[in-house]
Design a protein that fits this description.
This protein is α+β, with helices and mostly antiparallel strands. The protein has helices at residues 16-20, 24-39, 46-53, 59-62, 76-86, 105-113, 120-123, 127-140, 162-200, 205-220, 241-244, 256-268; strands at 2-4, 10-13, 70-71, 90-95, 98-104, 225-232, 276-280, 290-296.
Amino acid sequence: MPVVDAAGAPVGMVSEGDLIGRDETDREARRDWWLTLLAEGGTLNADFVASLRASERSARDAMASPVVTVGEETEIGEVARLLTAHRIKRVPVLRDGQIVGIVSRADLVRALALEGPRPATVAAGGMLAEAMAGLYYRFSHRQHPPEPVELPLGLDDAEPTASDFRSLVADHEHSKLEHQQEHRRTAAVQRKHRVAELIDLHISDDNWRSLLQQARQSAERGEKEFMLLRFPGQLCSDGGRAINISEARWPETLRGEAGELYLRWERDLKSQGFPLGARFLDFPGGMPGDVGLFLTWGQ
């Protein structure tokens, strides 16, 4: 994980090795911890337990600094050289002093695999080269398996080990997690823009009549409710908390278009026997996402 200062500039990196320690005692503690898990109920290593209780340490205490970084236009060969020279697995990518991505060893191998056919001397690289190329074919679902590629860090002439393959899986999982996080960040930005739009949006008489007509058509199709509006939970003054736990005061938290629709319902439809309800429609990444505002008439 990158560590940044108040301005968002990188000041260090924290790795698994930084957290669990790199000396022999810590490695033994880590090994005993996993053995305990497998044994289901054995005694935890005392050194490992003690390390878990040391909660005063911060990211600054554990991080490796200064951090090695590259720019967006840095060539892949130079990135591989930096990883080799500094014996690191990943390097942050900067734009105007801010982190915009991370390049890992797995990313380099994938990039090499996508470059196309390699020279004959490279194609005869070795068993590990072929195995890694096959793994990346499976991970990326390519139509045609890539030609064997030359691996960075001089691994193409080495005999394959289970540790090598576990590292490949770990790097793949890390890359997948990064993509998921980027997707969540993009969705969060989109929700923020949507909230800004809905805050300033007003319901006209024509809009209201159109919604009522659509609700009537839903009833004609045999449906018992109609969603008047779908909006991000952040549009609510409490982020949607009252709706999520079904508090009676949830209408008080509505803002913008959602608030105006509630007032229209209260004025025109409440006395006509139409209940109005709100509920969350999705929970992206386990967090509350969009809310639906529903006009109902069924039993």
